[in-house]
Records
---
Amino acid sequence: MATTTSSATAAYAAYDRTTSRWGRITMIMGLLLSLAGPAYLLFFSDLDIPLSTVVTAYLAVAAVFAVLAIVEPLTYFPVLGPAAMYQAFMIGNIANKLLPSAIVAQAAIGAKPGTRRSELAAVMAICGAAVVHIFSLLIFVGILGTWLVSIVPAAITEVAQLYIFPAIIGAVIVQLAAYVKQPRITIIALAVGAVVQLLLVPVLGPTFRNFATAVVVLLTMVLAWMLRNRSTLHAGPGDEALL
């Protein structure tokens, strides 16, 4: 038994090193490729874009998305683990596609959050979600997209645009609550979100609204830690068998 556990630990360590190395490489390649187009237009085209315009545009985008760049990794990492995080941020649509897929897979096999088994389940679930997504885009957008748009009434399209995303996010929240099985933390998160969105945002105005998500996440983390059930024992990442 000791030999099997040691072999599993060594195999997971090798897997972690490999995914971390290639994850960093692919993320850097993705960053360079995403910047290649704008860099070409800025330095090698005749658009003559002033540097002040670039800085202004960057600050305008950063004012909204810089907060998410901090909040999202903190929010997703406990569920996905390191390897799946590289996948998720390369693929995108994390909250409404990849995270629910990982949660469903982990719940289906009874994997506890933060364990090796849950991390591997998240990786496999994201692979499956990506394959389904690619084939769905190929069929329903690439092949049938124009035809489907032409036959769907405009009223249905407007309703879909207005309600589908909140419905998906609401379902994800319910999945997360059922997955972690921590009623106290769930109540804290809902209470903090309600106070920030219903009381603080209307009073403090649009500037505070840009940071409301970060405030909700940070306050929930602090309060959940301070008000946690201190009699509960949590298993570490190495306390569960790999398979």
---
Amino acid sequence: MNVISPRSGTAFILKKGQKLKITDPEGEQVSDFICFNLNDTKEYLSSGRTIDYAETIFLTKGHPFYSNRSNIMFNILEDTVGRHDFLLTPCSADTFRIIYGDKNPHRGCFGNLCEALKPYGIEPDAIPICFNVFMNVAVNGESGKIDVLPPKSKAGDYIIIEAEMDLIVGMTACSAEMSNNYSFKPIAYSIS
């Protein structure tokens, strides 16, 4: 089991057919997840395509996740939580400056992903909306207002995905206060 320290990130290769288990060891901790086609990094995980084809924003077991080219990148095989977010962008220094008013903001998930993905030749502008594992975002059906609520994940909750192509994966232990019920914890993962 690999551990991503609080407010940090990592990147690695996940080959077609491999399974990735993402675990919340302590509960109420979000992990921003993004992936790119290992053989052509201009193909990346697409929030818009995935939501469009699934006809739901609440993605869970049984949903395929699509690239910007409408190819399936991975499927969720198991999900003990059932609530994640695919609407909101990775938190960043700008997030903390604009939303929280921080004077010396943390670089956030975006900065952590930039650093982790740099060795793979992925530039900051190429990082799209992430699949925010365990993030709980409520949407008002009338007004469209969104609320970031505490994650529903408890200690030991997990999802398992299976890669449908060779992937470069970027993952974080999210850095945003609101997303994690105002405490920062690790995220664990394993590949099989």
---
Amino acid sequence: MRRCDVLPGRGPDERAAVTGLPRLLGTRTAWTAVGDGEFFCPGCGGDRNYQRLTGQRRFALLGVPLLPRGATGPVVECAACRRHFGTDVLDHPTTTRFSVMLRDAVHTVALAVLAAGGTGARGPLETAVAAVRAAGFEDCTQERLAALVEALAADTGRFTDEPCAAGLAIELHEALDPLAPHLAAAGRESIFLQGARIALADGPYTPAERDTLSTVGAALTLCATDVTRLLTVARTPS
């Protein structure tokens, strides 16, 4: 006789009772939708609709919910794959939102570096326009960027060759702080290098450009050693 045929110390009736117990008793959860929206679903790997759910657990007898066991959740349920995730999944931007954040970050960095070095030379404007167009502002022109730099200088009260003013630093952090946690190191360094190459397009870094790029690096959570390394890397033609 095989070992699995006998449960030590239990007769046939007891074995049947043990086998049937999970079918008699269990826990059921009744979910209630409390919100919805769009999110990046880790299970699907793309943007999907979701429902935010809260649940009430109950003991169930023969599949019928009876005694309450307390609340559970909230959770996020994907409308496509129906998987449940913790609500922290909503902290990750959707693909669409991420693209907008990245585009705005490159645009803000370009403006900040141009504001530090001025728009009198053609090289920085050309380099900045190429970076901004590649990021998603396809209709960007040198004239528009130059006008925005002038407006930025008037708004912040900052002149060319001055250190990064508080207002400009705030704008950089507002554009880069929400994005940085969702970028790999290579992505953060790429944004920094775009700014550095704009600054180098008309010659060596000025003190104001270095100060602005240091602010960019801090907002991108790059350490001082990495900032120094990238300032050197940017001098090497890509």
